[in-house]
């Protein structure tokens, strides 16, 4: 590949690259690249054409660009942005062509909508995990999962469809992986990077899942978990203290998943996207009230106290429950049952005996009476 002169590498609308793609408008700029909406002249379709920025037109920048194309063409999952073409011999600079998407990145969605409801967070995160399952399976770690690299669009008539973007700093796993950055260069976005990534340890899938855990908490809360400058974010990530999750994340059924994902110890956090996806499914099957079981002891006691001080509606309105059944009558004590008083029984016997005696006396007198004899 011939050296590229910076003065020749000033892309602008109307420019045609390789006789195939006409640049229409500048739609995105990054630290090392710029993206144009372009028209593929032969097919008349619109595409997203990515070019190197003038600051990266060197050997290392070109190698990284080539590496992005090599990795991107291995990925075919619907939730990963699809690469259509590339040309490293193009005039005036190399380019990679991706499908053109219509929608907004997650950073724009959060700015417009604020905190997202739990079901929507699950829908978006599930799709991100499915994209990562494929990339990790082929040995590719993204290393820059953040709102700006998650695109939310309507795709094939399906709303809230996710496309994971920008594998530009992705890295292959294994000893054969190339180190394409200068020594000491931080690769990624500090507020989403785990300590092991900041420290330059080998790329592992858990790094992407750590970033996704922070992203889940951010979606639930509506703002980033770690703010401040890049330096301040690095200090927070490297601190031995666990990540301080926002209230919305702590109150969510997704809390145990987030806590495990953002564990600063790479051995304790998720190792596989599939395991994280399974735990999300299990967490969402739990009743919302079960979240109290995950609270620290002090918080759980406080929640239990609240539930005991407020009487349920059914206590005040029995018709809200099943019909009430009258309890069986309790038996009377033996002394109060009719006919069982011993004194009454004795009196009755005495009366009967007296009556019989009187009848006997009267009968005897009548038989012995003189009126019954002749004169």
In a few lines, what is going on in this structure?
By secondary structure, the chain is of the alpha+beta class. The chain has helices spanning 59-72, 106-113, 118-137, 195-198, 205-221, 230-238, 247-250, 255-261, 273-285, 297-309, 313-316, 342-367; strands spanning 16-17, 21-29, 33-40, 45-52, 83-87, 95-99, 103-105, 140-141, 150-155, 158-164, 171-172. The chain has a 6-stranded antiparallel beta sheet with strand order 1-2-3-4-6-5, with helices on one face. A 3-stranded antiparallel beta sheet has the order 7-9-10. Strands 8-11 form a two-stranded antiparallel sheet.
Report on the architecture of this protein.
By secondary structure, the protein is of the alpha+beta class. Helices cover 37% and strands 15% of the residues. The chain has 12 helices and 11 strands. The protein has helices spanning 59-72, 106-113, 118-137, 195-198, 205-221, 230-238, 247-250, 255-261, 273-285, 297-309, 313-316, 342-367; strands at 16-17, 21-29, 33-40, 45-52, 83-87, 95-99, 103-105, 140-141, 150-155, 158-164, 171-172. It has a 6-stranded antiparallel sheet, covered by helices on one side. Strands 7-9-10 form a 3-stranded antiparallel sheet. Strands 8-11 form a two-stranded antiparallel sheet. The radius of gyration is 42 Å and the shape is elongated. Residues 1-7, 175-184, 292-340 and 371-375 have low confidence and may be disordered.
């Amino acid at each position: 590949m011939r050296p590229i002169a910076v003065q020749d590498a000033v892309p602008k609308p109307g420019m045609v690259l390789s006789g195939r793609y006409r640049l229409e408008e500048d739609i995105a700029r990054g630290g090392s690249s710029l993206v144009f909406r372009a028209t593929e002249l032969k097919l008349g379709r619109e595409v997203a054409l990515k070019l190197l920025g003038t600051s990266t037109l060197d050997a290392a920048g070109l190698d990284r660009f080539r590496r992005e194309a090599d990795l991107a063409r291995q990925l075919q999952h619907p939730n990963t942005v699809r690469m259509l073409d590339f040309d490293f011999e193009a005039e005036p600079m190399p380019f990679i062509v991706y499908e053109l998407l219509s929608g907004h990145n997650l950073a724009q969605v959060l700015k417009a909508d604020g905190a997202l409801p739990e079901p929507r967070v699950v829908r978006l995160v599930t799709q991100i995990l499915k994209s990562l399952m494929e990339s990790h399976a082929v040995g590719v770690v993204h290393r820059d999962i953040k709102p700006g690299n998650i695109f939310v669009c309507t795709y094939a008539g399906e709303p809230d469809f996710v496309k994971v973007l920008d594998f530009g700093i992705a890295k292959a796993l294994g000893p054969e992986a190339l180190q394409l950055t200068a020594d000491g260069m931080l690769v990624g976005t500090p507020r989403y990077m785990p300590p092991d990534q900041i420290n330059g340890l080998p790329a592992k899938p858990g790094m992407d899942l750590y970033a996704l855990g922070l992203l889940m908490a951010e979606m639930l809360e509506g703002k980033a978990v770690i703010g401040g400058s890049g330096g301040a974010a690095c200090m927070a990530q490297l601190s031995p203290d666990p990540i301080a999750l926002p209230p919305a994340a702590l109150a969510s059924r997704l809390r145990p998943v987030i806590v495990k994902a953002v564990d600063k110890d790479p051995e304790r956090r998720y190792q596989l996207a599939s395991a994280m996806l399974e735990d999300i499914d299990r967490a969402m099957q739990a009743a919302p009230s079960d979240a109290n079981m995950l609270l620290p002891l002090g918080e759980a006691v406080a929640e239990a106290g609240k539930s005991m001080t407020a009487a349920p509606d059914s206590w005040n309105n029995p018709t809200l429950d099943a019909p009430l059944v009258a309890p069986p009558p309790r038996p009377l004590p033996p002394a109060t049952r009719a006919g069982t008083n011993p004194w009454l029984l004795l009196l009755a016997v005495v009366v009967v005996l007296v009556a019989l005696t009187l009848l006997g006396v009267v009968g005897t007198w009548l038989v012995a009476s003189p009126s019954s004899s002749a004169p």
